[in-house]
Amino acid sequence: MKSTLVAWLFDLLSWLPLRILHGCGVALGWLIYVVSGKYAARLRENLGHEWQGKPEADFRRALRANIREMGKSISELPWVWRRPLDVVVRSVKSVEGLEHFTAARERGKGVIVLTPHLGSFEIVGLYVAAQMAMTCMYRVPKLPWLDGVIRGGRMRGQMQLARADVGGVRTLLKALKRGEAIGLLPDQVPGNGEGEWATFFGRPAYTMTLAGKIIGASGATVLLSYGERLSHGAGYAIHFSPLELKHGMSVARQINAAQEEIIRACPTQYLWSYNRYKVPAGALPPAAIKEL
User: Fold this and answer.
1) Of 104, 116, 163, 214, which has the most beta carbons under 10 Å away?
2) Any domain includes 1
C-alpha cells in the first residue's frame, strides 16, 4: 500500500519542471539541515575537514551550496525515475570524456562504471543503460516498501540490478563477459571482511575491495563517472574519465585517490553528509589494526 502511494506521488511530482523541483529541493535541504542535528554535524565535520586551511567564508559558502544540492538530489528523484526515459536522457546536455566511453564499448571487454555519491549518480546509470546493457549493484533499502519504487525508477532502458551478495557478483561478472557495462558505488561502505582501510581525503575509510577483484577477474575497462547537476534546472553534464591502475599498489587506495580528484572538480555536489568513515559492525578500527 505504501509503495503504491509513493509511486503515485512520484508520478504526480514528475510532471513538474525540473527547475521547480530543484527549487523545492533547496528548501528541503535547509529543512533537513535544521531539523536533523546528526546530519548537520556530520556534514560540517566532513566538509570542514576538506576545507581545512581555507578561509572561513569559503567554507560557509561551500556549506550553504552543499545543503542546497543535497536537497535537490532528493527532490529530483520523481523526475529522474518517473519521467519517460527519452526525456530524462535528453536532459543530459553534454558528455565530457564521451570518447573514453565509446572506446570502452567498442573494445568489447565490458565496462566498469564507478560512480561515487557525487551529483546525480542516478542519471549516469540511466544514460549508460540507454546506450548499452548495464547491470548495477543494488542494496535492498531498509524500508521494504521503497524497494518497488527504487527498482521501478532504475530498471529502465537496458538496466538490470544485481543484489549485493555472492550471486550478485556472479551476475556482474557474467555481464562483463558478454561485453556489457556494470555499475558500482565505490565510496559505499562495505560490510566487515569486504573492504580494507584506505585513505580518503586524508582520513582512513573502510573501502570496498570488490571493485578491485572484479577488475582483476574481468580485464574490463574502468571508467569513473558522475552527473553534474546544472544550475536552474537546466539538466545535467555527465563526466567520464579512464582509471589507469598501477601494479604493486592497493587498488582500493588508487580508486579513492581517483575519486578525490573528480570530487574536487565538483565539491559542492558531493554527499559529504554520508557516514563514509564509520567502522562496520565486527571490523577492527584502523587504530587497532596498527597496534596489532
Assistant:
1) 116
2) no
Instruction: Please check whether residue 15 lies inside any domain of the structure.
Output: no
Are residues 95 and 240 in contact, defined by beta-carbon separation less than 8 angstroms?
Answer: yes
- The answer for residues whose C-beta is within 8 angstroms of residue 169's C-beta and 6 or more apart is 162, 210, 214
Q: Which three cell numbers stand for residue 3?
A: 509503495
- What cell was used for 72? 535537490
109 in a structural domain: yes
Question: Could you give the CA distance from residue 19 to residue 172 in angstroms, rounded to a whole number?
Answer: 36
CA distances from 26 to 9, 63, 73, 175, 188 (A): 19, 13, 10, 38, 25
Domain total in the chain? 1
CB contact at 8 A, 155 and 149: no
Closest CA to 155 of 81, 226, 86: 81
Could you tell me the pTM of the whole model?
Answer: 0.93
Give domain status of residue 98, yes or no: yes
The Cα 123–Cα 128 span in angstroms is 9
- Per-residue pLDDT 10s for the chain (292 aa) are 667 887 788 889 899 999 999 999 999 999 999 999 999 999 999 999 989 888 999 999 999 999 999 999 999 999 999 999 999 999 999 999 999 999 999 998 999 999 999 999 999 999 999 999 999 998 888 877 788 888 888 999 999 999 888 898 999 999 999 999 999 999 999 888 889 999 999 999 999 999 999 998 888 999 999 999 999 999 999 999 999 888 878 999 999 999 999 999 999 999 999 999 999 888 888 876 565 4
Question: Among positive and negative, which fits the CA dihedral 118, 120, 125, 128?
Answer: negative
From 271, 277, 242, 279, select the one nearest 116 (Cα to Cα): 271
DSSP state of 233: G
The range of the structural domain enclosing residue 183 comes to 86-291
